[in-house]
Amino acid sequence: MKHLVKARTAGLALLVLMIVILSACSSSNNNKTNEAANNGNAQTSSDPAATDSGKKLPRVAFVYIGPPGDGGWTFEHDNGRKYMEEKLGIKADTVENVPESADAERVITELAQNHDIIFTTSFGYMDYTLNVAKKFPDVKFMHTAGYKTADNMSTYFGKNYEASYLSGIAAGKMTKSNVIGYVGAFPIPEVIYNINAFALGIQSVNPDAKLDVVWSNTWYDPTAERQAAISLLDKGADVLLAYQDSPATLQAAAERGALAGGNDSDMTRYAPEAYLTNPTWNWGPYYTKVVQSVIDGTWKSEQYSGDMVDGMVGLAPLGPSIPDDVKKLVEDAKAKILSGELDVFSGPITDASGASKLEAGQTMSLENILEMNWFVKGVEGTIPQ
Amino acid sequence: MDIFVQIVVAAISSGTPLLFATLGGILIERSGIIQLGAEGLMLMGAVIACMTYLNTGNLALALMAACAISAVLGVVHAFMCVTLRANQIVSGLALTLFGTGLSAYLGKSITGQPVAGAVPKVNLNFLENVPVIGGIFAHLDILTWFSFILVIVLHLYIHRTSWGLHLRAIGDNPPTADVMGIRVQTFRYGYIVIGSMLIGLAGADLLMVYSPTWIEGMTAGRGWIAVALIIFARWNPIRALFCAYFFGALDTIGFRIQLIGSEIPSYFLKMIPYIVTILVLMFLGWRNRNKPSGSPESLGIPYIREQRF
């Protein structure tokens, strides 16, 4: 028995040792990279350094839904952060992999205690950001893609459906089977109006093509995204677009010799031969402008919507296997959008059941677009109501 | 018929990592040691395979590295459970926590870098025109074929060889095995290390074949499903094959139901694997209520020569 007790003590001691080593690892990591680990122990060492002009630089923090290495959504936000840092000489803090749950509120609260402006870069952070904003009236909050604001909380997004429409033109021209697939993250307006714009783009050049939609119910889970993409390919789709944060759909399509686009970022490098195009984000100039306005003391709560004209929304260069005549078609439509001649959601538009949603000659108001919860005709899929 | 073939192909591709992990777990548990570290071992296997492949571009080296790192962790588990006779559940959980944390740390620099197309496929073109069989077997990758062979080898080994008899003996009744001259401690070490290597290989397979990009926590609970599969399969490699593919199919079936235009909300479809896990457990529990559980009788009990319990 004595042996057993000894053995247990030794085992326990080893376990404690392992834990100590582990925690030592993670804390040294924090100090080095100035980033907080997933457990949310937000790094608080940002230096409120004063500039030469005597003006105090704001302490800036970013909350990310995924890792900056996702190659899409968070990657572009991180590029925006770097752009802003370089322009203004500020070192911002970041917290990665923050789930859209009560964890988010905890992380944002911790950041709010020693930062002046916090960017929360995912739709699901909306209510948590608002809760924290109420508790910290002196801190500015910038939330991506939401619709709630407060005196110290702005929301910002862009009309990425303009680029989705252009991607649709390319997809409609490139499909041979006339079945096009779409991997959607969640059945929320942001994704739905992009699907609709994509479908309208397809129909503008190829009225026979059908668009199949599958929901993955996740922003970032490459294994699930991949399965969703494969189920669409199995159904006969030969062009895919994914409203997801990773390039998993593009990689799956490449293995089957199909074409695909992702979202958020130019994804050519993941599978050049299979790359179609997709909407992209460019957050840097806007982030710089917002932080500058905090420095100048001119920051005001707003609901900002960028577009292709101001450059927040862009279209990735079409892939090398897309022929020049298709490229030309897309370029022409892009020019029309930039000049204001072409409005993506202009009538007549009917929904999937055949009911008229917009009369000929009319255009849809931004408000109506932002609360869209129906598919246009030609889209096959269901929206849980 | 097409749909059937497509689902089987998808089930095999998402079931193969589960199969490797379950086979490794069966080897370990047959020797009488509880194995709850699969999640951590798979993650470590995946991240090391990814790092090795990105740095060297050599598939064999990547797979060997994944096996090596999980063998090292297996030795730690064996040292805790066999030599120190520590609590096997705690040691397994520690491995899972350790592997999850360390893999996330190591993987920071390689997150999002693609490793697509690394595993060569075995193209059996003569099968192409055979209905069903051709669709399923004509273009599988070498790791999947290896898993088929492994199932048969392990089945024969456990049930048809004297070495397998020894393995079952040290798991069921180590004192008797010891009296018969089988070195219980040494064999337990060996099986834990080999089993851990298979679990590490499961992680490498998940990364190299199924989802060719490293992401933090990419196993998403597959290690725990493998633990459940060991019990579903009642410690039998052949049953493990079918259980693994069954759960692999559940991974993909939700999307296909969406595509045939069903009105079931996609949120419900996402729950399918979890609901089925509970149902299968209930069903098996009911069906086998009067049978012995099939678990090794000394599972979880450390062996000390000449000690009575």
TrEMBL record, chain A:
Residues 33-42 have a biased composition (Low complexity). InterPro entries: ABC-Purine-Binding (IPR052910), PnrA-like (IPR003760). Residues 59-341 form the ABC transporter substrate-binding protein PnrA-like domain. Coiled coil: none annotated. The keyword Signal applies. Residues 1-29 form the signal peptide. Gene3D superfamilies: 3.40.50.2300. Residues 33-54 are annotated as: Disordered. Pfam families: Bmp (PF02608). PANTHER family: ABC TRANSPORTER SUBSTRATE-BINDING PROTEIN. This is Basic membrane protein A. It comes from Paenibacillus catalpae.
TrEMBL record, chain B:
Keywords: Cell membrane, Membrane, Sugar transport, Transmembrane, Transmembrane helix, Transport. GO terms for molecular function: transmembrane transporter activity. Its main location: membrane. The chain crosses the membrane at residues 6-26, 33-54, 60-82, 89-107, 136-158, 189-208, 214-233, 240-261, 267-286. One of its GO terms (cellular component) is plasma membrane. It is found in: Cell membrane. It comes from the Bacteria. Pfam families: BPD_transp_2 (PF02653). It is a multi-pass membrane protein. This is Simple sugar transport system permease protein. It comes from Paenibacillus catalpae.
